[in-house]
Description:
Structural class: mainly alpha
Radius of gyration: 17 Å
Largest sheet: 2 strands, parallel
Strand content: 5-15%
Order of helices and strands: HEEEEHHHH
Helix content: 40-55%
Distance between the termini: 52 Å
Shape: globular
Number of strands: 4
Number of helices: 5
Amino acid sequence: MRTPRRDLLRWQFDLTWSLAGIHLDALTPEDFLWEPADLTWTVRPDPDGVWRPDWADTEPDPVPVPTIGWLTWHIGWWWGTAIDHTEGRTPPAREDVHWPGDGVAALACLRDLHAEWVRVLDALTETDLDRASAYPWPADAGLTIAHLAGWVNAELMKNIAEIGHLRMLRAASLA
């Protein structure tokens, strides 16, 4: 059955993902941990070898420039959380979401999330789209799964643009 809102959200998501490929497919292993400024957020292994992101519960001022590794972790965290919320599951705590340790594995995780989101999005009915959603905003905000899906599209576009910008800056710095 056709669901016009879902079809529009899916079209927008497919457009965003096709643009993501321009940057994701061009990344080199060295791009992921390149630090473009003195003040950066990145991912790094803890003493047990688990890759953890830099984080502050209150956003610092100035905001650190994220590395591509940090951005791929960030996408994995919020996207997985969005999927869990859409499917009615309790997502893991942010602290329990780790970076896989290298760029190839990070991109494989993003591609897996893409496939999972397509499955979730394609299964949504108009009734599902009207269900209340408490992510990524407070439960009393009055927003729905349709809002969440629109936010996924916007957040993905923003994060991919950040990755693309970092990739191009690094390439230009090496020229």
